Amino acid sequence: LAQASVTQQLAGRPEPLGGSAMSTLRALFVSLAAIVARAHIEGAVRREQASSIGRDELECGHSGECFSSWMQVHARPAPVAKQAEAAALPTSPSKEVGTKRLPKIYVYDLPAEVTFNGEEMVFRDNTTCEAMATGTEEDDTCVFGPHFNVSLAASPAPLAVRDVDQYQLGEILLFSLQRHPRRTHDPSEADLFFIPVIQKQGRFPWNQQGCYSAEALVQHLPHLRAENAKRHIWINPRAAWSHFTCPAFDSQPSDPHPDNQLLAATTKVALEDAVSAPREAFLDDWEVMYNVRTPPMASNLHSIPYPSFTSGLEAAQLEAFRAASAVPRTRQNFVAAMWGMHGPSRSMDQRTELQLQCNKSSDCIVLSLDGLRYETNSEVVVFGSLDATFCLQPEGDTPSRKGMVDSILTGCIPVLFSPLQTKLWPWHIERWEDIAIAMDGVPSDIMGRLSQVSTDEIERLRTNMLAVLPRLSYSLPEKPRPEDSLETTLAAILKLAQ
User: Fold this and answer.
1) Burial of 331 (0-12, 13-18, 19+ CB in 10 A)
2) How confident is the model at residue 341 (pLDDT cuts 50, 70, 90)?
3) What is the rounded CA–CA span in Å between residue 328 and residue 351?
């Protein structure tokens, strides 16, 4: 704001500003930004300390919610007696915040496994976290991964972030909605219904054992009707390609059985959908040609972003990271390339060519993730991204990569190499051109292309990435923040259903 004001005041000046004057102004702006950021950080620390000694009850009361700047801060829960008293009261209708309606959610109580017509079927293939005591650090760690610290020059103390599994969205949504303040146990009050059927493991054509049938699932969903099917939500925590889904998830309106038709009308979310990964874009992939795997084909499927290292943080922790990230700083590397050499032929071609070009330049650092494919890799990727201006993001096994989210959150400008990548997560990222450099394939001189990006454009992209950060972060269960990843998703689904 200060820079814009000065620029406007000087717009009528007949002579251009000299280099020393402009340098002085820039230094003033950087200093001002540092002061404001430190104030935000210290304020966040004070709020976090206050919550630990009970001051939050004085400032926010026992409601558990108060609002500070862009985020929602949750006070310490009320005593158990108060919670029990509140639970006995009638549930209020859906909240209104401004003009945005906040939906109430009904969560089906489904077992992890069932026997149907003498056949064992699995609704959830990973129940490790379900045995944890709710609301404990052990519980949060199981869902979001352990903490680790990063250091930024603008922060007086290390900043806590999370080492989250990229395919943990199923557990994140399940636990968040089960403990959501707007959860209702009365289906007649519900705006949305969550179906806790989560298939995290692979389901290749030769390994369909345990897959649930449409008939078995529908029998466990007593409130599912044709008229409210679109308000029923379920998730594939991966990219929803056929080798990670059961056939019932991919039900089509044209299927002959009524149960499949009913499931086809429900709303699904996954890391990718048929818009960001259409089958016709992969006809050169032998695995697709021979149906070893099939791009997303579920009806009413929408893509939502990967969980990343800012998911599962307390509100004060997220605000501290965001404030420190807003302060301009020197980054040691111009370009960072971080991946392992795996994937289908198109992905391998992109990664091989980019790595060859990167290895020839002293301005590009290569951090190999070979041998770490099944690890979370958060620390390697976060530290590498925080220290680079541009982060190369070739396709992975499919068009999306968790690294795309990591780079946005660290302020490392993502460089995309497929038009399909710009069609990902439209509820959360409206215009990729506002936060990324998008190319159609790998150019012959990637370093030369990126060196032509102006300083003003780099600053514009970073400013926009900072604004997107809240929408790319999933909150802790029981502590939703306005416009976080989950709330953005719920609001979009409610709008579609209406």
Assistant:
1) middle
2) confident
3) 30
